[in-house]
Amino acid sequence: MDYRKLNEWITEMANLCKPDRIHFCDGSQDEYNRLLEEQVRANKAIRLNPDKRPSSYAFFSDPSDVARVENRTFISSVLEENAGPTNNWIDPKILKPKMEKLFSGAMKGRTMYVIPFVMGPVGATIAQYGIQLTDSPYVVCNMRIMTRMGEHILDIIESGKDFVPCLHSVGYPLDGRPDVPWPSAPIEDKYIAHFPEERLIWSYGSGYGGNALLGKKCLALRVASKIGREEGFMAEHMLILKLTNPEGKSKFILGAFPSACGKTNLAMLLPTIPGWRVETVGDDIAWIFKKDDGKLYAINPEKGFFGVAKGTSYKTNYNAMKSIEKNTIFTNVAITEDNDVYWEGMDETPIKAMNWKKQPWTITDREPAAHPNSRFTVSIEQAPNLAKEYDDKEGVLISAILVGGRRASTIPLVTEAYDFNHGVFMGSMMGSEITAAQISNDIGKVRRDPFAMLPFIGYHIKDYFQHWFDMKQGTKEEDLPKIYYVNWFRKNDKGEFLWPGFGDNSRILKWIFERQEGTRKGIETPIGIMPRKEDLDLSGLKLTDEAFDELFKVDKNAWMDELDDLYRYYQSLGEVPQELYDELIKVKERLLK
Ligand code: GTP
Ligand code: SPV
Ligand code: MN
Known about the structure:
By secondary structure, this protein is α+β, with helices and mostly antiparallel strands. The chain is 27% helix and 22% strand.
Protein backbone atom coordinates (compact mmCIF):
# COMPACT_ATOMS: atom_id res chain seq x y z
CA MET A 1 0.00 0.00 0.00
CA ASP A 2 1.14 3.51 -0.75
CA TYR A 3 2.47 5.13 2.46
CA ARG A 4 0.23 8.18 1.80
CA LYS A 5 -2.76 5.99 2.55
CA LEU A 6 -1.37 4.90 5.93
CA ASN A 7 -3.52 7.07 8.18
CA GLU A 8 -6.60 6.56 6.07
CA TRP A 9 -6.18 2.78 6.33
CA ILE A 10 -5.67 2.82 10.10
CA THR A 11 -8.77 5.00 10.57
CA GLU A 12 -10.81 2.79 8.28
CA MET A 13 -9.77 -0.39 10.09
CA ALA A 14 -10.42 1.22 13.48
CA ASN A 15 -13.91 2.23 12.32
CA LEU A 16 -14.49 -1.35 11.26
CA CYS A 17 -13.09 -3.14 14.33
CA LYS A 18 -14.23 -0.50 16.87
CA PRO A 19 -11.48 -0.82 19.48
CA ASP A 20 -11.87 1.24 22.67
CA ARG A 21 -8.36 2.65 22.22
CA ILE A 22 -5.59 2.85 19.62
CA HIS A 23 -1.99 2.52 20.73
CA PHE A 24 0.90 3.31 18.37
CA CYS A 25 3.74 1.02 19.43
CA ASP A 26 7.09 2.73 19.86
CA GLY A 27 8.90 -0.60 20.13
CA SER A 28 10.67 0.39 23.37
CA GLN A 29 11.76 -1.94 26.15
CA ASP A 30 9.49 0.00 28.50
CA GLU A 31 6.46 -0.59 26.37
CA TYR A 32 7.29 -4.32 26.08
CA ASN A 33 7.74 -4.67 29.85
CA ARG A 34 4.56 -2.77 30.56
CA LEU A 35 2.50 -4.93 28.19
CA LEU A 36 3.81 -8.13 29.72
CA GLU A 37 3.14 -6.95 33.27
CA GLU A 38 -0.38 -5.93 32.26
CA GLN A 39 -0.96 -9.45 30.95
CA VAL A 40 0.30 -10.96 34.19
CA ARG A 41 -2.18 -8.81 36.11
CA ALA A 42 -4.97 -9.80 33.71
CA ASN A 43 -4.26 -13.50 34.37
CA LYS A 44 -3.06 -14.08 30.79
CA ALA A 45 0.56 -14.83 31.61
CA ILE A 46 2.78 -15.75 34.47
CA ARG A 47 6.12 -14.21 35.34
CA LEU A 48 8.72 -16.95 35.75
CA ASN A 49 11.06 -17.23 38.71
CA PRO A 50 13.43 -14.27 38.28
CA ASP A 51 16.29 -16.19 39.91
CA LYS A 52 15.95 -19.01 37.41
CA ARG A 53 14.62 -17.31 34.29
CA PRO A 54 14.97 -13.51 34.56
CA SER A 55 12.52 -11.29 32.66
CA SER A 56 10.71 -14.27 31.21
CA TYR A 57 7.03 -15.07 30.90
CA ALA A 58 4.80 -18.02 30.09
CA PHE A 59 1.50 -17.98 28.20
CA PHE A 60 -0.99 -20.81 27.79
CA SER A 61 -3.20 -20.89 24.74
CA ASP A 62 -6.70 -22.15 24.42
CA PRO A 63 -6.48 -25.91 23.69
CA SER A 64 -8.11 -25.27 20.31
CA ASP A 65 -5.50 -22.68 19.26
CA VAL A 66 -2.12 -24.39 19.42
CA ALA A 67 -0.58 -24.25 15.92
CA ARG A 68 -0.97 -23.00 12.38
CA VAL A 69 -4.31 -23.95 10.86
CA GLU A 70 -3.59 -24.87 7.25
CA ASN A 71 -7.19 -25.69 6.40
CA ARG A 72 -8.22 -22.17 7.49
CA THR A 73 -5.38 -20.49 5.56
CA PHE A 74 -6.31 -18.93 2.21
CA ILE A 75 -4.61 -17.48 -0.83
CA SER A 76 -7.41 -15.26 -2.02
CA SER A 77 -6.06 -14.31 -5.43
CA VAL A 78 -8.43 -12.75 -7.94
CA LEU A 79 -8.26 -15.88 -10.11
CA GLU A 80 -8.35 -19.37 -8.61
CA GLU A 81 -5.69 -20.61 -11.02
CA ASN A 82 -3.22 -18.15 -9.49
CA ALA A 83 -3.54 -19.85 -6.10
CA GLY A 84 -3.00 -23.26 -7.69
CA PRO A 85 -3.99 -26.73 -6.52
CA THR A 86 -2.00 -26.68 -3.26
CA ASN A 87 -3.62 -23.62 -1.68
CA ASN A 88 -7.11 -23.06 -0.27
CA TRP A 89 -8.77 -20.44 -2.40
CA ILE A 90 -11.84 -18.30 -1.92
CA ASP A 91 -12.85 -15.56 -4.32
CA PRO A 92 -11.83 -12.29 -2.63
CA LYS A 93 -15.23 -10.90 -3.63
CA ILE A 94 -16.74 -13.48 -1.28
CA LEU A 95 -14.06 -13.65 1.39
CA LYS A 96 -13.68 -9.92 1.94
CA PRO A 97 -17.32 -9.23 2.88
CA LYS A 98 -17.35 -12.38 5.00
CA MET A 99 -14.29 -11.26 6.93
CA GLU A 100 -15.50 -7.67 7.12
CA LYS A 101 -18.49 -8.98 8.98
CA LEU A 102 -16.25 -10.87 11.38
CA PHE A 103 -13.94 -7.88 11.87
CA SER A 104 -16.90 -5.59 12.43
CA GLY A 105 -16.77 -4.68 16.12
CA ALA A 106 -14.19 -7.44 16.70
CA MET A 107 -11.99 -5.23 18.89
CA LYS A 108 -14.75 -3.87 21.12
CA GLY A 109 -13.51 -3.42 24.66
CA ARG A 110 -9.92 -3.88 23.51
CA THR A 111 -6.95 -1.80 22.41
CA MET A 112 -5.89 -1.79 18.78
CA TYR A 113 -2.09 -1.81 18.65
CA VAL A 114 -0.34 -0.38 15.61
CA ILE A 115 2.93 -2.24 14.98
CA PRO A 116 5.30 -0.81 12.36
CA PHE A 117 7.91 -3.40 11.38
CA VAL A 118 10.34 -4.41 8.69
CA MET A 119 11.29 -7.89 7.55
CA GLY A 120 15.00 -7.86 6.72
CA PRO A 121 17.78 -5.54 7.83
CA VAL A 122 16.88 -1.86 7.33
CA GLY A 123 18.33 -0.79 4.00
CA ALA A 124 18.44 -4.26 2.43
CA THR A 125 17.22 -3.90 -1.16
CA ILE A 126 14.57 -6.59 -0.68
CA ALA A 127 13.51 -5.59 2.87
CA GLN A 128 9.70 -5.53 3.17
CA TYR A 129 7.92 -3.06 5.41
CA GLY A 130 4.66 -3.82 7.14
CA ILE A 131 2.15 -2.46 9.62
CA GLN A 132 0.24 -4.93 11.72
CA LEU A 133 -2.91 -3.86 13.52
CA THR A 134 -3.77 -6.29 16.30
CA ASP A 135 -5.87 -6.53 19.44
CA SER A 136 -3.42 -8.98 21.05
CA PRO A 137 -0.73 -7.59 23.36
CA TYR A 138 0.86 -11.07 23.26
CA VAL A 139 1.31 -10.58 19.51
CA VAL A 140 2.86 -7.14 20.06
CA CYS A 141 5.46 -8.57 22.44
CA ASN A 142 6.25 -11.48 20.12
CA MET A 143 6.49 -9.21 17.07
CA ARG A 144 8.95 -7.01 18.97
CA ILE A 145 11.20 -10.03 19.40
CA MET A 146 10.69 -11.55 15.96
CA THR A 147 10.95 -8.44 13.77
CA ARG A 148 12.69 -5.11 13.63
CA MET A 149 9.84 -3.02 14.98
CA GLY A 150 9.09 0.41 16.34
CA GLU A 151 8.80 4.13 15.80
CA HIS A 152 11.90 4.31 13.62
CA ILE A 153 10.17 1.98 11.14
CA LEU A 154 7.06 4.15 11.13
CA ASP A 155 9.34 7.12 10.29
CA ILE A 156 10.81 5.19 7.35
CA ILE A 157 7.34 4.25 6.06
CA GLU A 158 6.11 7.81 6.47
CA SER A 159 9.09 9.08 4.52
CA GLY A 160 7.88 7.17 1.47
CA LYS A 161 8.16 3.37 1.68
CA ASP A 162 5.33 1.16 0.57
CA PHE A 163 4.19 -1.30 3.20
CA VAL A 164 2.12 -4.44 3.53
CA PRO A 165 -1.01 -3.77 5.60
CA CYS A 166 -1.69 -6.63 8.04
CA LEU A 167 -4.92 -6.70 10.01
CA HIS A 168 -5.26 -9.16 12.89
CA SER A 169 -7.84 -9.84 15.55
CA VAL A 170 -8.11 -12.74 17.96
CA GLY A 171 -11.84 -12.61 17.23
CA TYR A 172 -13.17 -12.29 20.76
CA PRO A 173 -14.83 -8.89 21.19
CA LEU A 174 -15.59 -7.88 24.76
CA ASP A 175 -19.14 -7.00 24.01
CA GLY A 176 -20.44 -7.01 27.57
CA ARG A 177 -18.64 -10.26 28.40
CA PRO A 178 -15.50 -10.75 30.46
CA ASP A 179 -12.17 -11.55 28.82
CA VAL A 180 -10.61 -15.01 28.95
CA PRO A 181 -6.90 -15.87 29.38
CA TRP A 182 -6.43 -16.72 25.68
CA PRO A 183 -9.18 -15.22 23.55
CA SER A 184 -9.69 -16.77 20.11
CA ALA A 185 -12.55 -17.69 17.77
CA PRO A 186 -13.98 -21.12 16.96
CA ILE A 187 -12.21 -22.98 14.17
CA GLU A 188 -14.91 -22.35 11.57
CA ASP A 189 -14.53 -18.61 12.07
CA LYS A 190 -10.75 -18.60 11.77
CA TYR A 191 -9.42 -17.14 8.53
CA ILE A 192 -5.74 -16.58 7.77
CA ALA A 193 -6.20 -14.73 4.49
CA HIS A 194 -3.77 -13.36 1.93
CA PHE A 195 -4.77 -11.11 -0.93
CA PRO A 196 -1.63 -11.38 -3.04
CA GLU A 197 -2.48 -8.86 -5.76
CA GLU A 198 -3.10 -6.19 -3.14
CA ARG A 199 -0.26 -7.40 -0.95
CA LEU A 200 -2.70 -7.44 1.94
CA ILE A 201 -3.05 -9.80 4.92
CA TRP A 202 -6.15 -10.32 7.07
CA SER A 203 -6.03 -12.78 9.93
CA TYR A 204 -8.99 -13.47 12.19
CA GLY A 205 -9.63 -15.78 15.09
CA SER A 206 -6.24 -17.17 16.19
CA GLY A 207 -3.58 -15.79 18.50
CA TYR A 208 -0.96 -18.47 17.86
CA GLY A 209 2.39 -18.29 16.05
CA GLY A 210 2.28 -18.20 12.29
CA ASN A 211 -1.46 -17.46 12.32
CA ALA A 212 -1.00 -14.27 14.30
CA LEU A 213 2.57 -12.95 14.03
CA LEU A 214 1.85 -11.71 10.54
CA GLY A 215 5.41 -10.68 9.69
CA LYS A 216 6.47 -14.32 9.77
CA LYS A 217 4.71 -16.90 7.58
CA CYS A 218 2.09 -14.55 6.12
CA LEU A 219 4.36 -11.72 5.03
CA ALA A 220 7.89 -13.13 4.94
CA LEU A 221 6.81 -16.32 3.16
CA ARG A 222 3.40 -16.24 1.46
CA VAL A 223 3.25 -12.59 0.39
CA ALA A 224 7.03 -12.25 -0.05
CA SER A 225 7.15 -15.39 -2.23
CA LYS A 226 4.69 -13.69 -4.58
CA ILE A 227 6.61 -10.40 -4.50
CA GLY A 228 9.81 -12.37 -5.10
CA ARG A 229 8.31 -14.10 -8.12
CA GLU A 230 7.56 -10.66 -9.56
CA GLU A 231 10.77 -8.96 -8.50
CA GLY A 232 13.31 -11.74 -8.92
CA PHE A 233 14.05 -13.04 -5.43
CA MET A 234 12.90 -16.10 -3.47
CA ALA A 235 11.29 -16.27 -0.04
CA GLU A 236 12.14 -19.68 1.42
CA HIS A 237 11.42 -21.72 4.55
CA MET A 238 15.12 -22.18 5.27
CA LEU A 239 17.70 -21.77 7.99
CA ILE A 240 20.99 -20.01 7.25
CA LEU A 241 24.18 -21.14 8.97
CA LYS A 242 27.82 -20.15 8.79
CA LEU A 243 30.22 -23.08 8.87
CA THR A 244 33.87 -22.45 9.66
CA ASN A 245 36.62 -25.05 9.31
CA PRO A 246 39.63 -25.39 11.64
CA GLU A 247 41.69 -23.19 9.27
CA GLY A 248 39.18 -20.36 9.71
CA LYS A 249 37.56 -20.54 6.29
CA SER A 250 33.77 -20.02 6.27
CA LYS A 251 30.90 -20.99 4.01
CA PHE A 252 27.19 -20.27 4.30
CA ILE A 253 24.73 -23.13 4.04
CA LEU A 254 20.93 -22.98 3.83
CA GLY A 255 18.53 -25.74 4.79
CA ALA A 256 14.90 -26.30 3.82
CA PHE A 257 13.25 -28.71 6.27
CA PRO A 258 9.51 -28.71 7.01
CA SER A 259 8.12 -27.41 10.30
CA ALA A 260 9.53 -29.19 13.34
CA CYS A 261 12.09 -31.08 11.23
CA GLY A 262 15.30 -29.58 12.54
CA LYS A 263 16.00 -26.10 11.13
CA THR A 264 16.54 -24.37 14.47
CA ASN A 265 18.63 -27.30 15.70
CA LEU A 266 20.90 -27.29 12.67
CA ALA A 267 21.27 -23.51 12.69
CA MET A 268 22.44 -23.61 16.33
CA LEU A 269 24.42 -26.82 16.17
CA LEU A 270 27.48 -27.50 18.33
CA PRO A 271 29.77 -29.66 16.17
CA THR A 272 30.99 -32.92 17.69
CA ILE A 273 34.07 -32.79 15.43
CA PRO A 274 36.94 -30.74 16.83
CA GLY A 275 37.86 -27.38 15.33
CA TRP A 276 34.63 -26.83 13.36
CA ARG A 277 32.22 -24.03 14.21
CA VAL A 278 28.58 -23.35 13.31
CA GLU A 279 27.14 -19.87 13.74
CA THR A 280 23.55 -18.81 13.20
CA VAL A 281 22.36 -16.31 10.61
CA GLY A 282 18.74 -17.46 10.63
CA ASP A 283 16.66 -20.42 11.76
CA ASP A 284 13.40 -20.36 9.78
CA ILE A 285 13.25 -18.06 6.76
CA ALA A 286 15.77 -17.08 4.10
CA TRP A 287 15.30 -14.65 1.26
CA ILE A 288 17.52 -15.51 -1.68
CA PHE A 289 18.56 -12.91 -4.23
CA LYS A 290 21.05 -12.50 -7.00
CA LYS A 291 23.71 -9.84 -7.14
CA ASP A 292 25.53 -8.31 -10.10
CA ASP A 293 28.18 -11.04 -9.88
CA GLY A 294 25.44 -13.53 -10.83
CA LYS A 295 25.76 -15.38 -7.52
CA LEU A 296 23.03 -16.14 -5.01
CA TYR A 297 22.99 -14.46 -1.59
CA ALA A 298 20.66 -14.78 1.40
CA ILE A 299 19.32 -12.63 4.20
CA ASN A 300 17.30 -13.64 7.23
CA PRO A 301 14.21 -11.39 7.30
CA GLU A 302 13.55 -12.17 10.98
CA LYS A 303 15.18 -10.94 14.17
CA GLY A 304 14.24 -13.69 16.60
CA PHE A 305 13.52 -17.36 17.12
CA PHE A 306 10.03 -18.79 17.51
CA GLY A 307 11.43 -22.20 18.28
CA VAL A 308 9.97 -25.59 19.19
CA ALA A 309 10.49 -26.05 22.95
CA LYS A 310 9.74 -29.76 23.12
CA GLY A 311 12.90 -31.83 22.70
CA THR A 312 15.22 -28.88 23.33
CA SER A 313 17.88 -29.64 25.96
CA TYR A 314 21.45 -28.70 26.86
CA LYS A 315 22.41 -32.02 25.32
CA THR A 316 20.57 -31.65 21.99
CA ASN A 317 20.68 -27.88 21.51
CA TYR A 318 23.01 -26.18 23.97
CA ASN A 319 22.98 -22.85 22.13
CA ALA A 320 19.18 -22.69 22.15
CA MET A 321 19.12 -23.44 25.88
CA LYS A 322 21.68 -20.68 26.49
CA SER A 323 19.62 -18.29 24.35
CA ILE A 324 16.48 -18.80 26.42
CA GLU A 325 18.00 -18.41 29.87
CA LYS A 326 16.44 -14.93 30.14
CA ASN A 327 14.21 -12.39 28.33
CA THR A 328 12.12 -15.14 26.78
CA ILE A 329 8.41 -15.66 26.17
CA PHE A 330 7.27 -19.29 26.47
CA THR A 331 3.99 -20.59 25.09
CA ASN A 332 2.32 -23.87 26.08
CA VAL A 333 5.20 -25.23 28.13
CA ALA A 334 4.75 -26.77 31.58
CA ILE A 335 5.66 -24.93 34.79
CA THR A 336 7.69 -26.50 37.59
CA GLU A 337 7.02 -26.05 41.29
CA ASP A 338 9.74 -23.41 41.51
CA ASN A 339 8.13 -21.49 38.68
CA ASP A 340 10.49 -22.41 35.89
CA VAL A 341 9.72 -24.08 32.56
CA TYR A 342 9.66 -27.75 31.60
CA TRP A 343 8.93 -29.76 28.47
CA GLU A 344 9.42 -33.34 27.35
CA GLY A 345 13.00 -33.98 26.33
CA MET A 346 14.46 -31.34 28.66
CA ASP A 347 17.49 -32.37 30.68
CA GLU A 348 15.69 -33.04 33.97
CA THR A 349 12.12 -34.23 34.49
CA PRO A 350 10.33 -32.88 37.56
CA ILE A 351 8.14 -35.16 39.66
CA LYS A 352 5.31 -32.65 39.59
CA ALA A 353 4.44 -29.70 37.42
CA MET A 354 1.57 -27.67 36.05
CA ASN A 355 0.91 -28.77 32.48
CA TRP A 356 0.26 -26.47 29.51
CA LYS A 357 -3.47 -26.68 30.22
CA LYS A 358 -2.72 -25.29 33.70
CA GLN A 359 -3.67 -28.61 35.33
CA PRO A 360 -1.62 -30.47 37.93
CA TRP A 361 0.69 -33.01 36.27
CA THR A 362 2.91 -35.76 37.65
CA ILE A 363 5.72 -37.74 36.09
CA THR A 364 3.54 -40.86 35.85
CA ASP A 365 0.86 -39.10 33.77
CA ARG A 366 0.37 -40.41 30.26
CA GLU A 367 -0.32 -37.01 28.74
CA PRO A 368 2.77 -34.91 28.05
CA ALA A 369 3.23 -31.90 30.32
CA ALA A 370 4.08 -29.51 27.49
CA HIS A 371 2.26 -29.28 24.18
CA PRO A 372 4.30 -30.86 21.33
CA ASN A 373 4.14 -27.49 19.54
CA SER A 374 5.16 -25.51 22.65
CA ARG A 375 7.45 -22.67 21.67
CA PHE A 376 9.94 -20.11 22.94
CA THR A 377 10.26 -16.61 21.52
CA VAL A 378 13.63 -14.97 21.97
CA SER A 379 15.79 -12.38 20.26
CA ILE A 380 18.37 -13.79 17.86
CA GLU A 381 20.88 -11.52 19.61
CA GLN A 382 20.77 -13.83 22.62
CA ALA A 383 22.21 -16.72 20.62
CA PRO A 384 25.75 -17.38 21.89
CA ASN A 385 26.72 -18.55 18.41
CA LEU A 386 25.25 -15.61 16.51
CA ALA A 387 27.07 -14.92 13.23
CA LYS A 388 28.05 -11.30 12.83
CA GLU A 389 26.51 -11.31 9.34
CA TYR A 390 22.96 -11.80 10.69
CA ASP A 391 22.19 -8.08 10.37
CA ASP A 392 24.16 -7.49 7.17
CA LYS A 393 21.92 -5.94 4.53
CA GLU A 394 24.26 -7.27 1.84
CA GLY A 395 23.41 -10.86 2.76
CA VAL A 396 25.72 -13.86 2.69
CA LEU A 397 26.98 -15.84 -0.32
CA ILE A 398 25.25 -19.23 -0.49
CA SER A 399 27.57 -22.23 -0.97
CA ALA A 400 25.08 -25.03 -0.48
CA ILE A 401 21.40 -25.66 0.08
CA LEU A 402 20.19 -28.70 2.01
CA VAL A 403 16.71 -30.05 1.45
CA GLY A 404 15.10 -32.80 3.47
CA GLY A 405 12.40 -33.97 5.80
CA ARG A 406 11.41 -36.75 8.14
CA ARG A 407 11.52 -40.00 6.23
CA ALA A 408 11.70 -43.29 8.09
CA SER A 409 12.84 -45.12 4.94
CA THR A 410 14.03 -44.77 1.32
CA ILE A 411 15.90 -41.44 1.58
CA PRO A 412 19.63 -41.76 2.43
CA LEU A 413 21.45 -39.67 5.04
CA VAL A 414 22.99 -37.38 2.40
CA THR A 415 23.01 -37.23 -1.39
CA GLU A 416 24.63 -34.53 -3.52
CA ALA A 417 22.78 -33.41 -6.63
CA TYR A 418 24.62 -33.78 -9.94
CA ASP A 419 23.76 -30.21 -10.87
CA PHE A 420 21.36 -27.38 -10.04
CA ASN A 421 18.44 -28.86 -12.00
CA HIS A 422 18.86 -32.18 -10.26
CA GLY A 423 18.90 -30.28 -6.96
CA VAL A 424 15.65 -28.49 -7.76
CA PHE A 425 14.22 -31.92 -8.58
CA MET A 426 15.32 -33.14 -5.13
CA GLY A 427 13.60 -30.16 -3.51
CA SER A 428 10.45 -30.80 -5.53
CA MET A 429 10.24 -34.42 -4.36
CA MET A 430 10.67 -33.69 -0.67
CA GLY A 431 8.28 -35.58 1.52
CA SER A 432 7.94 -35.49 5.26
CA GLU A 433 5.93 -36.90 8.11
CA ILE A 434 3.41 -34.31 9.30
CA THR A 435 4.36 -32.83 12.70
CA ALA A 436 2.52 -31.03 15.50
CA ALA A 437 3.49 -27.64 14.05
CA GLN A 438 0.17 -27.64 12.23
CA ILE A 439 -3.25 -28.77 13.37
CA SER A 440 -3.99 -32.00 11.52
CA ASN A 441 -5.55 -35.41 11.93
CA ASP A 442 -2.73 -36.87 9.85
CA ILE A 443 0.26 -36.31 12.13
CA GLY A 444 2.98 -38.83 11.25
CA LYS A 445 1.74 -39.45 7.70
CA VAL A 446 4.11 -38.67 4.84
CA ARG A 447 3.06 -35.87 2.53
CA ARG A 448 4.94 -34.17 -0.27
CA ASP A 449 6.24 -30.81 0.87
CA PRO A 450 8.42 -29.35 -1.89
CA PHE A 451 11.24 -27.26 -0.42
CA ALA A 452 9.24 -27.28 2.86
CA MET A 453 7.11 -24.61 1.18
CA LEU A 454 3.81 -26.45 0.66
CA PRO A 455 1.92 -24.34 3.25
CA PHE A 456 3.79 -21.15 2.36
CA ILE A 457 3.79 -20.64 -1.43
CA GLY A 458 1.62 -17.60 -2.13
CA TYR A 459 0.89 -18.55 -5.76
CA HIS A 460 0.66 -21.51 -8.15
CA ILE A 461 3.16 -24.23 -7.29
CA LYS A 462 4.06 -24.81 -10.96
CA ASP A 463 5.19 -21.20 -11.21
CA TYR A 464 7.12 -21.70 -7.97
CA PHE A 465 9.11 -24.54 -9.54
CA GLN A 466 9.62 -22.43 -12.63
CA HIS A 467 10.93 -19.61 -10.42
CA TRP A 468 13.69 -21.92 -9.16
CA PHE A 469 14.80 -22.60 -12.72
CA ASP A 470 14.53 -18.90 -13.58
CA MET A 471 16.89 -18.04 -10.71
CA LYS A 472 19.72 -19.78 -12.50
CA GLN A 473 19.33 -17.84 -15.74
CA GLY A 474 22.50 -15.92 -16.54
CA THR A 475 24.56 -17.69 -13.85
CA LYS A 476 27.26 -20.24 -14.55
CA GLU A 477 26.60 -23.70 -13.07
CA GLU A 478 29.74 -23.46 -10.91
CA ASP A 479 28.52 -20.20 -9.38
CA LEU A 480 25.23 -21.73 -8.24
CA PRO A 481 24.85 -23.28 -4.78
CA LYS A 482 25.25 -27.06 -4.63
CA ILE A 483 22.11 -28.85 -3.48
CA TYR A 484 22.04 -31.81 -1.05
CA TYR A 485 19.18 -34.07 -0.01
CA VAL A 486 19.56 -34.99 3.68
CA ASN A 487 17.52 -37.19 6.02
CA TRP A 488 18.46 -37.28 9.71
CA PHE A 489 15.38 -39.39 10.45
CA ARG A 490 15.91 -42.77 8.76
CA LYS A 491 14.93 -45.64 11.05
CA ASN A 492 15.86 -49.31 11.42
CA ASP A 493 13.25 -52.06 11.48
CA LYS A 494 12.89 -51.60 15.24
CA GLY A 495 11.78 -48.03 14.62
CA GLU A 496 14.95 -46.47 16.09
CA PHE A 497 16.80 -43.58 14.45
CA LEU A 498 19.85 -44.91 12.63
CA TRP A 499 21.72 -41.62 12.84
CA PRO A 500 22.44 -39.78 16.12
CA GLY A 501 21.64 -36.41 14.51
CA PHE A 502 21.98 -33.03 16.24
CA GLY A 503 25.70 -32.20 16.85
CA ASP A 504 26.76 -35.19 14.76
CA ASN A 505 25.13 -33.61 11.72
CA SER A 506 28.36 -31.55 11.66
CA ARG A 507 30.00 -34.63 10.14
CA ILE A 508 27.74 -34.27 7.12
CA LEU A 509 28.29 -30.51 7.01
CA LYS A 510 32.03 -31.16 6.97
CA TRP A 511 31.72 -33.51 3.97
CA ILE A 512 29.63 -30.91 2.16
CA PHE A 513 32.14 -28.14 2.94
CA GLU A 514 35.03 -30.25 1.71
CA ARG A 515 33.17 -31.35 -1.41
CA GLN A 516 33.04 -27.68 -2.36
CA GLU A 517 36.76 -27.36 -1.69
CA GLY A 518 37.36 -30.37 -3.90
CA THR A 519 39.11 -32.27 -1.12
CA ARG A 520 36.47 -34.91 -0.37
CA LYS A 521 35.38 -37.82 -2.45
CA GLY A 522 32.07 -39.48 -3.02
CA ILE A 523 30.64 -42.10 -5.30
CA GLU A 524 28.14 -41.68 -8.07
CA THR A 525 24.88 -43.53 -7.50
CA PRO A 526 21.65 -43.47 -9.52
CA ILE A 527 20.17 -40.89 -7.17
CA GLY A 528 23.20 -38.65 -6.68
CA ILE A 529 26.67 -38.52 -5.16
CA MET A 530 27.12 -40.12 -1.75
CA PRO A 531 30.01 -40.46 0.66
CA ARG A 532 31.52 -43.86 1.30
CA LYS A 533 32.34 -44.68 4.90
CA GLU A 534 35.94 -43.50 4.46
CA ASP A 535 34.74 -40.18 2.99
CA LEU A 536 32.97 -39.15 6.20
CA ASP A 537 34.63 -38.04 9.41
CA LEU A 538 33.12 -40.58 11.80
CA SER A 539 35.87 -40.34 14.43
CA GLY A 540 34.63 -40.93 17.94
CA LEU A 541 31.25 -42.11 16.69
CA LYS A 542 30.02 -45.63 17.26
CA LEU A 543 28.27 -46.46 14.01
CA THR A 544 28.16 -50.08 12.93
CA ASP A 545 28.76 -51.06 9.31
CA GLU A 546 25.19 -52.34 9.19
CA ALA A 547 23.81 -49.00 10.35
CA PHE A 548 25.99 -47.18 7.84
CA ASP A 549 24.83 -49.40 4.99
CA GLU A 550 21.22 -48.95 6.04
CA LEU A 551 21.63 -45.15 6.21
CA PHE A 552 22.95 -45.04 2.65
CA LYS A 553 20.95 -47.87 1.16
CA VAL A 554 19.31 -47.14 -2.19
CA ASP A 555 16.43 -49.57 -2.38
CA LYS A 556 15.74 -49.81 -6.10
CA ASN A 557 12.13 -50.94 -5.72
CA ALA A 558 11.34 -48.30 -3.12
CA TRP A 559 12.83 -45.66 -5.42
CA MET A 560 10.88 -46.85 -8.44
CA ASP A 561 7.70 -46.62 -6.34
CA GLU A 562 8.76 -43.19 -5.12
CA LEU A 563 9.29 -41.99 -8.70
CA ASP A 564 5.93 -43.36 -9.82
CA ASP A 565 4.26 -41.57 -6.96
CA LEU A 566 6.19 -38.41 -7.77
CA TYR A 567 5.13 -38.61 -11.40
CA ARG A 568 1.49 -38.78 -10.31
CA TYR A 569 2.13 -35.88 -7.95
CA TYR A 570 3.54 -33.73 -10.76
CA GLN A 571 0.55 -34.64 -12.91
CA SER A 572 -1.81 -33.57 -10.15
CA LEU A 573 -0.21 -30.11 -10.01
CA GLY A 574 -0.85 -29.05 -13.58
CA GLU A 575 1.94 -28.08 -15.91
CA VAL A 576 5.09 -28.33 -13.86
CA PRO A 577 8.29 -27.42 -15.72
CA GLN A 578 9.58 -30.00 -18.18
CA GLU A 579 12.96 -29.89 -16.39
CA LEU A 580 11.40 -31.79 -13.48
CA TYR A 581 10.15 -34.60 -15.71
CA ASP A 582 13.57 -34.68 -17.40
CA GLU A 583 15.30 -35.16 -14.05
CA LEU A 584 12.79 -37.80 -13.00
CA ILE A 585 13.49 -39.76 -16.17
CA LYS A 586 17.24 -39.44 -15.66
CA VAL A 587 17.04 -40.93 -12.17
CA LYS A 588 14.80 -43.70 -13.45
CA GLU A 589 17.22 -44.53 -16.27
CA ARG A 590 20.17 -44.61 -13.89
CA LEU A 591 18.26 -46.92 -11.55
CA LEU A 592 17.42 -49.28 -14.41
CA LYS A 593 20.97 -49.39 -15.80
P1 GTP B 1 9.81 -24.97 12.95
O1 GTP B 1 10.16 -23.91 13.92
O2 GTP B 1 8.45 -25.55 13.19
O3 GTP B 1 9.95 -24.54 11.53
O4 GTP B 1 10.76 -26.25 13.24
P2 GTP B 1 12.31 -26.50 12.94
O5 GTP B 1 12.48 -27.01 11.54
O6 GTP B 1 13.14 -25.35 13.32
O7 GTP B 1 12.62 -27.77 13.89
P3 GTP B 1 13.48 -27.85 15.23
O8 GTP B 1 14.94 -27.61 15.00
O9 GTP B 1 12.84 -27.02 16.26
O10 GTP B 1 13.31 -29.40 15.59
C1 GTP B 1 12.04 -29.96 15.78
C2 GTP B 1 12.15 -31.29 16.46
O11 GTP B 1 13.04 -32.16 15.75
C3 GTP B 1 12.70 -31.19 17.88
O12 GTP B 1 11.93 -32.00 18.73
C4 GTP B 1 14.10 -31.72 17.77
O13 GTP B 1 14.53 -32.30 18.95
C5 GTP B 1 14.03 -32.71 16.60
N1 GTP B 1 15.31 -32.78 15.85
C6 GTP B 1 16.02 -31.73 15.35
N2 GTP B 1 17.16 -32.15 14.77
C7 GTP B 1 17.18 -33.49 14.87
C8 GTP B 1 18.10 -34.51 14.44
O14 GTP B 1 19.14 -34.26 13.84
N3 GTP B 1 17.76 -35.80 14.73
C9 GTP B 1 16.60 -36.12 15.39
N4 GTP B 1 16.34 -37.40 15.62
N5 GTP B 1 15.72 -35.19 15.82
C10 GTP B 1 15.99 -33.89 15.56
C1 SPV C 1 6.45 -23.46 11.39
O1 SPV C 1 5.41 -24.10 11.61
O2 SPV C 1 7.15 -23.66 10.37
C2 SPV C 1 6.91 -22.46 12.37
C3 SPV C 1 6.03 -22.12 13.47
O3 SPV C 1 7.98 -21.91 12.20
S1 SPV C 1 4.82 -20.95 13.03
O4 SPV C 1 5.38 -19.62 13.18
O5 SPV C 1 3.68 -21.12 13.95
O6 SPV C 1 4.41 -21.16 11.68
MN1 MN D 1 9.18 -22.88 10.51
